[in-house]
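Weekly structure sync, notes
Attendees: PL (lead), two postdocs, one rotation student
Agenda item 3: pending single-chain targets
PL asked that the sequence for the first pending target be pasted directly into the notes so everyone works from the same version. It is reproduced below exactly as submitted, 173 residues in total.
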Amino acid sequence: MTKKCLLIVFCLLLAGTTIHAQGKPFPRNTFYVEGLGQGLIYSVNYEYGLTRNWKIRVGFTSWKLENLPLFVSFDNTLRFRGAPIMLNYLCGNDFHHLEFGLGVLAGSVDLSGKSIFLGERLQGRKRLVKGTGTLGYRFQPSRTGPVIKLALTPLFDLKHIDLFGGIGLGLTF
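Predicted structure, written out during the meeting:
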C-alpha cells in the first residue's frame, strides 16, 4: 500500500508542473505557523504549489507538556515531535478559498509514565503515524501576500478519530 501512495504522489507531482493558470503566474511558496491543527499545539509549515489549486505541505512540531491534562490524560511529562505531510486542494476566487486536504502526521511520543494519547495507550517512547485531513477556509491572494487559515483538522486511524481545529497565519510568495 505504501508503494501505491508514493506512485500517486509522484504522478501528482508530474501532473502539477504547470507554472501558469489562466495565463497568469501564481506564487508557489507559502510559509505559515498553525496554532493547534495537525501539530496538536502548533506547527511551522512550508507549502509548495504544484498548480494554482494543488499544494503539498510539510510541517514540523516539537513540544513538551508536564502535568497538564488538556486533550490527553497523563500525570507525567509528554514530549511530542511530529511532521504533518499533506496534499491540499484549494477552490475559490482570487482571495477566498475552500481548502480540502489529506495526509499523515508522523511523529514520536516520549511519555515518562503510562497514559492515553490520541486514542492509544502509551508508555515510554513510541513512533506514531496518524491519518489527517483538512476542511477549512483560507484567505490567500492570487499574488504574494498574507495567508490566514481556519480549519477542522481531524487525526484518525482504523480504531479512533480525534477532532481538532487550527488557525494559521503566514505569507505566500
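Discussion points:
- The longest strand covers residues 96-117.
- The chain has one domain: 28-164.
Action: rotation student to compare against the earlier draft before next sync.
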